[in-house]
Amino acid sequence: MRLFKIRIMRDYDRLEERVRHWMDNVCDVRENEVSFRPPVDFYETSQGLVLRMELAGVATEDFSLSLSGQELIIRGRRRPLHPAGAARFLCHEINHGLFERRFRIPMAVDPEGLRAQYQDGILEIFLPRPAAISRRIPVREIPESE
Length: 146
Fold this sequence. Notes:
Blueprint: H1 2-29, E1 40-44, E2 48-54, E3 63-68, E4 71-78, E5 97-104, E6 115-119, E7 122-128
Antiparallel strand pairs: 1-2, 2-7, 3-4, 4-5, 6-7
């Protein structure tokens, strides 16, 4: 009976390796498809809007931000990590591949004041409210003869 259990485990390891190899090949073919969806916090402050996205393991050169009208678009890629010396994965939950998130901006923001920072795997984007513009409006007096 022990020999039978050892053989099942060996066959399972081979099957796992084949599936991993197949998935690596499939993932290379689907380069243009979104692979995962990074979690986000999106909130309003008195200064404007703040969007925080969890991007642990993503290099700054592997993502981009764009503001198109009232839509903020974040695209990027998390590259797979293949740890040196790993014989097989016992648990493989860290997603990798392409991602894209789109957010409708619910209020007017100052696109020139937009700023972003990336620290400790968190991308933080600040979308400030536009500055209030005040100007003096001259009042023209109309003579009664007109």
